[in-house]
Write a structure and sequence with these properties.
Largest sheet: 2 strands, parallel
Structural class: alpha+beta
Number of strands: 2
Number of helices: 2
Radius of gyration: 13 Å
Order of helices and strands: EHEH
Shape: globular
Length: 69
């Protein structure tokens, strides 16, 4: 079986960092997205690996991303 890699994965957690680009956003993006949810969806779609991409340009998000990774 050929691996399927998602080359652009974001997670974010409003309790861990500030995401200015989501301020005043009323879309479905304006909530925390955690690794457990990502893993469930990834497996449903047959994605075997992924590359984390930072969701905000701040130290808190960097620390959160590295913690999860």
């Amino acid at each position: 079986m050929q691996p399927i890699i998602d080359t652009h994965i974001h997670i974010w957690n409003f309790d861990k960092a500030k995401y200015e680009w989501l301020e005043n956003d009323t879309s479905i993006l304006n909530r925390s997205y955690d690794i457990d949810e990502l893993q469930r969806e990834r497996k449903k779609m047959g994605i075997t690996a992924g590359i984390f991409v930072q969701a905000a340009n701040n130290l808190e998000d960097t620390e959160w991303m590295l913690h999860v990774a």
